[in-house]
UniProtKB/TrEMBL annotation:
The chain crosses the membrane at residues 38-57, 64-81, 234-252, 258-284, 575-594. Keywords: ATP-binding, Cell membrane, Membrane, Metal-binding, Nucleotide-binding, Signal, Translocase, Transmembrane, Transmembrane helix. It comes from Janibacter alittae. Residues 119-218 form the P-type ATPase A domain. Belongs to the cation transport ATPase (P-type) (TC 3.A.3) family. Type IB subfamily. Residues 1-28 form the signal peptide. The lineage of its organism: Bacteria, Bacillati, Actinomycetota, Actinomycetes, Micrococcales. This is Cation-translocating P-type ATPase. It is a multi-pass membrane protein. The keyword Transport does not apply. Residues 626-663 are annotated as: Disordered. It is found in: Cell membrane.
């Protein structure tokens, strides 16, 4: 059904009712019998009231007494006592309000509609050397898809050839086109703004990031918040109570019109709509900015967050550590040999810090051939490997203390480790057959926007930002000092992070945990709100995280908290407007002056006020920058920035040897 057809269908009932009311007034002014005017007014009430009566009957069959029943009883009662104008006015205004409500809810779901609109229908694929245009859903994984300038990417995939730029706003909220080269990931629904790309499909149809986002937003907008569920329970007894009150008032006062008027003015329409319209608008605003919130309950919980716990590596830092220092601590072994042995041992390791050691060895031209004959990872400490009959250990001091039974050379190693750690680097001691031969250190550059993220979190009401890291404390504190972190918890294993989150919760805090969803999974699951960053490329994160930040942008985190707080504040304002309107109308009825028609008019105005207030959430606050545009800059004096940009070492007791090719 096209938008025009929907528009005509939505307004056809109130439009026909309005024509009949106008015709009734015209007939009443002529010389025709008043019976014709009354008949037209009754017809107007029937036209506008029939849909309401049908909904009330369906609700009753489901054992639900709702607002439609109140309006139906009031309109039928008004007709029976001869108040035809009141019956027509009440049903007409209710029909207008319902149409406006429907139109506004559709608008608040605009984010979902926009996502669906960007879903591509066709794809150009290479088959048997020819370009063929096929439905996007028929592309097979592994096929090569061609994306030309101005075309939408029809699949998730990896660039296998060509260069270009893509507008990824529909996925990540990023306002600027992103350059794509060979090996880069692309997402269905993004738009080419230049260049020509050959993409190897990795996800098609329902298996694309866009499809998962659409599914997630659909579910989130339908999910009820705790306040919404509370309002449903309130309405379940409130509506029958109003009916009983109207019957009692009618019996006591013998005034049927007063009783019917009570039914109309006590309609909880604004109250019923106050929560869902706010939730839909808030979640829709987030979706436009690349912030996927799981549902109303998580939106409400996010508004109460007062502690944010963040993982250091890959969250506060870029997640691309580089080797910064090689320190030789054995008189017969130089820095090149220390690096070579460390690299050979790390060749069989899956630890993230193995990669920078191996890359540095390769850049220095040091031979790292084959794998160790035996590799033994020691969780939280390092790795032990067997090389050419020697036992090589690479890791932290606790690991080396176990390997070095007599404690020889450990004092010197401790001093070097302390100095490197205080400079914000992660030191790893290298030992051969229990003898310390040197120390290698790596550093991961702190993100440029980390400091601004912490400042913004504080500005939106978060009391404390806690860093949780597996690094030793001096390394963690050096990084934390650059960005204004309030508390550092260092040397943590995954289970330690979980216990740390539980400790914060026992202290009465509402905790959000931000991590990569892998080694932080236990803590993410335990936290009140688990936040996954850079979720655009991770389907699991989109489905499992309470909040998924589609772009790997730290500044979207305070935006998410701010959005949640604004949404909950809007919900509270709407509830106050709804209850205040009912209270004022009740007083007006009891003290005289408020008729059935006036009551319904004021009631519908309150509904529009509530809807309009919620729709403010669809606008981006004036003080928010477009996602991904502005970045905070750390001073060049940052020790972490310095260590990430050049191979430098602190002064140590014995000379530091750093291969020239690594400088």
């Amino acid at each position: 059904m096209n938008p025009l057809t929907r528009l005509q269908g939505r307004w056809s009932v109130p439009a026909l009712s309005a024509l009949l009311i106008a015709a009734s007034y015209a007939v009443a002014q002529s010389t025709s019998p008043t019976a014709w005017a009354d008949a037209l007014m009754i017809a107007a009430a029937v036209v506008a009231g029939t849909p309401v009566l049908i909904k009330a009957w369906h609700a009753l069959t489901a054992k639900v007494i709702g607002i439609d029943l109140l309006v139906s009883v009031a309109a039928i009662g008004a007709v029976l006592v001869g108040n035809y104008w009141e019956a027509a006015a009440v049903t007409f205004l209710f029909a207008v309000g319902h149409s406006l409500e429907s139109a506004t809810l559709n608008r608040t779901r605009a984010a979902l509609a926009e996502l669906i609109a960007v879903a591509p229908d066709v794809a150009v694929v290479m088959r048997e050397g020819q370009q063929l245009e096929v439905p996007a859903t028929e592309v097979a994984k592994g096929e090569t898809v061609l994306v030309k300038n101005g075309a939408r990417v029809p699949v998730d995939g990896v660039v296998s050839g060509g260069t270009g730029a893509l507008d990824e706003a529909s996925i990540t909220g990023e306002s600027m086109p992103v350059d794509k080269l060979s090996g880069d990931q692309v997402f269905a629904g993004t738009v080419s703004t230049g260049g020509f790309l050959q993409v190897t499909a990795t996800g098609v149809g329902a298996d694309t990031t866009l499809a998962r986002i659409i599914h997630r937003v659909e579910e989130a907008q339908e999910a009820k918040a705790r306040t919404h569920a509370l309002m449903d329970r309130f309405s379940a007894w409130y509506t029958p109570a109003i009916i009983v009150l109207a019957v009692v008032v009618g019996l006591v006062t013998a005034d049927v019109v007063l009783a019917l008027t009570l039914l109309v003015i006590a309609c909880p329409g604004a109250l019923v709509i106050s929560i869902p319209v706010s939730i839909v608008a808030g979640i829709g605003r987030g979706a436009k900015d690349g912030i996927l919130i799981k549902g109303g309950e998580f939106l409400e919980t996010s508004a109460k967050i007062d502690v944010v716990a963040v993982d250091k590596t890959g969250t506060l830092t870029e997640g691309r550590p580089r080797l910064t220092d090689v320190v030789a601590l054995h008189p017969d072994i130089d820095g090149s040999e220390v690096l070579r042995m460390a690299a050979r041992a790390e060749a069989g390791s899956e630890h993230p810090l193995a990669r920078p050691v191996l890359e540095a060895a390769a850049e220095a031209g040091l031979p790292v051939l084959g794998l160790p004959s035996h590799t033994e990872p020691v969780p939280g400490k390092g790795i032990v490997a067997s090389l050419d009959g020697h036992r090589i250990a690479v890791g932290n001091l606790p690991l080396i203390e176990v390997e070095n039974h007599d404690g020889h050379d450990l004092d010197e190693a401790r001093e070097v480790v302390a100095q490197l750690a205080s400079a914000g680097r992660t030191p790893m001691v290298v030992a051969c057959d229990g003898r310390v031969i040197g120390v290698v250190a790596v550093a991961d550059r702190v993100r440029d926007d980390a400091a601004e993220m912490v400042a913004r979190l504080h500005s939106v009401g978060v009391k404390k930002v806690v860093m949780m890291t597996g690094d030793i404390e001096p390394v963690g504190r050096a990084a934390a000092a650059r960005v204004g972190i309030d508390e550092v918890l260092a040397g943590l294993l995954p289970e330690d992070k979980l216990r740390a989150v539980e400790d914060l919760q026992r202290q009465g805090h509402v905790v959000a945990m931000v991590g990569d969803g892998v080694n932080d999974a236990p803590a993410l699951a335990t936290a009140d709100i688990g936040v996954a960053m850079g979720a655009a490329g991770t389907g699991v994160a989109i489905e499992t995280a309470d909040i998924a930040l589609m772009k790997d942008d730290l500044l979207t985190l305070p935006e998410a908290v701010s959005l949640a707080r604004r949404t909950v504040n809007t919900m509270r304002q709407n509830i106050a407007v709804a209850l205040g309107t009912v209270a004022v109308l009740l007083a007006g009825v009891l003290f005289g002056g408020v008729t059935m028609a006036i009551g319904m008019l004021v009631h519908e105005v309150s509904v529009l006020v509530v809807i309009g207030n919620a729709m403010r959430l669809l606008r981006r606050p004036a003080d928010n920058r477009p996602v991904g545009r502005r970045r905070a800059q750390l001073p060049e004096a940052s020790p972490i920035r310095a260590s990430a940009s050049r191979m430098s070492s602190p002064r140590v007791p014995r000379g530091v040897t750093t291969p020239d090719s690594l400088r």
